[in-house]
Backbone:
């Protein structure tokens, strides 16, 4: 019986150590701010094959933070020189929306920021040389006729900042300017 009590005591002591270590290693912060209309789709009344659909984001490193009178310097806070949002391009195929896998070659080479192309597209807003604005602008080359929908996830995520003791992630909840649903439907003609 003593052995069982000792084993149970050791188990609880060991479990308490693990929990304590977990608490100590999670010195983490997730900061969330809201700033509307930071993403823009350059819409046109009519698209033809090989036209370009531009997506843009430009925002200051100084953001309002609810409950604080001073602006939050998101660069100084996160040490992140980039923020990323995602989007997908869908095409109407036999009456239902189908995701299109885009390649790097489906985007114009010029522009600001970076692209990770695939099933979902990661758009990277990069900090300018003056370290005052984050910017992204890329164009999707519309190669085929059809009905399309561009769906944007209106959340900008910072790179995760780690130092020897802390972890910090910042997200900016936003919206797509003049597109209330964050989804833009359009037709590409021959």
Residues:
């Amino acid at each position: 019986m003593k052995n069982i009590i000792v084993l149970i005591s050791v188990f609880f002591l060991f479990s308490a150590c693990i929990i304590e270590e977990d608490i100590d290693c999670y010195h983490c912060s997730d900061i969330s701010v809201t700033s509307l209309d930071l993403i823009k789709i350059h819409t046109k009344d009519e698209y033809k094959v090989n036209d370009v659909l531009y997506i843009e984001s430009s925002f200051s490193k100084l953001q309002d933070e609810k409950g604080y009178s001073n602006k939050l310097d998101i660069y100084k806070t996160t040490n992140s020189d980039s923020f990323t949002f995602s989007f997908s391009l869908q095409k109407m195929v036999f009456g239902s929306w189908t995701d299109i896998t885009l390649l790097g070659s489906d985007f114009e080479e010029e522009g600001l920021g970076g692209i990770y192309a695939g099933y979902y597209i990661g758009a990277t807003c990069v900090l300018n040389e003056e370290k005052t604005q984050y910017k992204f602008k890329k164009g999707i080359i519309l190669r085929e006729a059809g009905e399309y929908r561009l769906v944007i996830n209106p959340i900008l995520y910072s790179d995760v900042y780690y130092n020897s003791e802390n972890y910090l992630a910042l997200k900016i909840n936003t919206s797509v300017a003049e597109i209330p649903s964050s989804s833009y439907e359009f037709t590409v003609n021959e």
Notes: The chain has one domain: 29-189.
